[in-house]
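User: My notes are a mess, but here's the protein and S-adenosylmethionine's SMILES. Can you give me a structure?
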Amino acid sequence: MQGYSQAAENNKAPIADVMDKHLPPDASVLEIGSGAGQHALHMSHTFPGITWLPSEQQAVVPILEANLALYGSNNIQSPLVLDLTDFSWSRDSVDVVYAANVMHIVSESLGKRLVQLAADALKSSGQLMLYGPYKYNGQFTTESNALFDQWLKDRDPASGVRGFEAVIATAQCTGLALTQNYAMPANNQMLIFKRA
Ligand SMILES: C[S@@+](CC[C@H](N)C(=O)[O-])C[C@H]1O[C@@H](n2cnc3c(N)ncnc32)[C@H](O)[C@@H]1O
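Assistant: No problem, the inputs look usable. Here's the predicted complex:
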């Protein structure tokens, strides 16, 4: 597999366990920032009734396409070129928008665009699922998350572990309300939002 991530391999099963509680059996899922496609592959195999639409920035799509061609199933659609810097969604057409480990990679303003895009894309009964690390009241949950934040900022000053309260506030502005907050392995959270 091209672009293989050990972290994605480690977290795919715990994420699937959470999704199992919330995904409608025939859900349409739009994934933002699919990376090499490990979550797309795992979830589409685990939940054969769903339809998974992976997406990535232009530069990463060839890797995603190559992996999906080798390991994909019928319920994964061809990846969409979706760059948060220049993308909008005009209708409420998907059941779930899912993004893992994207909010802390992109800038805070692009993170807000991700949430807005989700609000635009989701059906009235839809859910936004955000997986990754968060700060609470400005405090990191662990020393390792603080070190991770510094490592991110050394690479790109616009990136960084986001504040839970700020993400909730952004979601509220778009009409989405937090309904679940699961503690996940390796000091991550799975935040689930629905229309308020
Ligand atoms: C840490 S990786 C996460 C990949 C995968 N979701 C996972 O959890 O293993 C972050 C992803 O965000 C994508 N990304 C970065 N900037 C983006 C943008 N402006 N629009 C869409 N995706 C972006 C990157 O290409 C990368 O694949």
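The radius of gyration is 16 Å.
User: Great, I'll file this with my notes.
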